[in-house]
Design goal:
The structure is a homodimer. Chain A is mostly helical. Helix content of chain A is 45%, strand content 3%. Chain A has one domain: Multidrug-efflux Transporter Regulator, Chain: A, Domain 2 (Orthogonal Bundle). A two-stranded antiparallel ribbon of chain A has the order 1-2. The structure holds a DNA duplex.
Chain lengths: 133, 133
DNA sequence: AGAACCTTCGCATAACTATGGTAAGGTTTG
DNA sequence: CAAACCTTACCATAGTTATGCGAAGGTTCT
């Protein structure tokens, strides 16, 4: 079998996920490895790095796979991203209105940057790490 | 009690949500109404509109409250947004895999603002309509 | 005062998420 | 060939999400 890519168990070891989870993660569409002609999943350097980063992401910011899955959906569905973005945008802009009981003062997040629709964000040439590859 | 803002039950009726859900939605931080001096929740035009839009959003794109909640988190936590954005960015590219400094690389993608706000439709003066207010 | 609201707290639950197993059956390779 | 992998499929479960309902106790309005 091709050397340069790890099988699921090997990948599991070096990434810290269980083989079971790697299959689950594939199901969610977050990291889909290639397959050998006989159907074995083959994790290359890119996938491995991605899996580690994913792990890091979930741990560092108490985020869940489903959350990242949603972000992925937004990245792929511009319309969805627009809709969500618009919804999020609204609250900030709300001049004088009701509820002025003082206390409910919104923190002025003047910096509601938005995140990402990297979809076509063309020019980012960002390389990946390698593995026992 | 102040007129111009609806109490939870009235708000529930005009938005289609149940009072229970309005409390839940408040818990998630998605729509937090003001309060009367005695503690009653007061939903103003903005909140009402927001609740309807939210409903529309969930229905139109099979999205869940927790998903929007996550988007909200990203909007408020730039660091989180950057991390997720960076992670999402990686997969698309397939240069030729050079490799080196690995993960510290994307750290530079600090400028990947993104996610679609309904942005460009600039003057999308989305006015809020009135209620029995 | 009393009806009709509102509040928080807690119980209950169906559906889903995140994981772990196990079984039946191919694939690789020593 | 047989051990050691891999695959899909299905069972199981702790935890979370999304909802509803009811209790105990303030608030409003008529």
């Amino acid at each position: 079998m091709e050397r340069g890519a790890l099988t699921i168990q090997e990948a599991a070891q070096t990434t810290g996920w269980s083989a079971r989870m790697l299959r689950y993660i594939e199901e969610t569409g977050l990291v889909v490895p290639g397959r050998s002609p006989s159907g074995y999943r083959l994790y290359g350097p890119a996938e491995l790095q991605r899996l580690r980063t994913l792990r890091h992401l979930l741990e560092e910011f108490d985020v869940e796979l489903s959350d990242v899955g949603f972000a992925l959906r937004m990245q792929r569905d511009q319309e969805l991203a627009d809709a969500v973005g618009a919804w999020l945008l609204a609250p900030a802009i709300r001049p004088g209105e009701v509820s002025d009981s003082g206390w409910l003062a919104y923190e002025q997040d003047k910096h509601l940057q938005l995140l990402a629709a990297a979809g076509r964000t063309r020019p980012r040439h960002h390389d990946i790490e390698e593995e026992t590859a």
